[in-house]
Amino acid sequence: MSKKKLAILTIIIAILLDQIIKIYVKTHYALGDGVDVFSWFQIHFTENNGMAMGFEFGGKAGKLFLTLFRLVAVSAIIYWLAQNIKKKVHNAVIIAISLIFSGAVGNIIDSVFYGVIFDNSNHKIATLFAEKPYGTLFHGKVVDMFYFPLWQGTLPEWIPFMGGEFFTFFQYIFNPADAFISVGVALLFIFSKQAFPKEENKIEA
Length: 205
Known about the structure:
The protein has 205 residues and is an alpha+beta fold. The protein is built from five helices and six strands. A hairpin with a 2-residue loop joins strand 1 and strand 2 (41-48). Helix 2 (59-87) packs antiparallel against helix 3 (91-117). The longest helix has 29 residues, at 59-87. The radius of gyration is 20 Å and the shape is globular.
């Protein structure tokens, strides 16, 4: 398989998987609902208006800026991917950049379109292609659902600042797009020599 086909296949599969899972959760759970898959893994439906992991960013104006920034970022990523395909770098690097691109696009789809195709999920299951959507174009909410409370308990008193407090590890809720970006970054780190080769200094005779 050519590197270009590998990139295209990775992107298609990742974006489809991300959107299928998000749409399923959105159309089967009310906001805050979920199910225990294992004691350490839950599907817990939540939404955020801003960046990954639920961080908020400057209201509607900030949301619009963030979405536009993401659009610029994916343009840069696709250029980066095209350049690496031309250079015929290691397949792991192609997959890594493709996953990062796919994750960014997946969350952009939420931000741009979900506000105009879904109605509200508060206390009810949302309707796809609703007559009265909850938002406007470019102001959709990003759907999150993966929750891994690997450990919960009260921290020892001797721990500075947080001693004696109830703590959950890992407390953040994320989605497939976030996971793709994280895996892509991890692959780039593992294959950093192939992704960011150092140019050897050529000594002219």
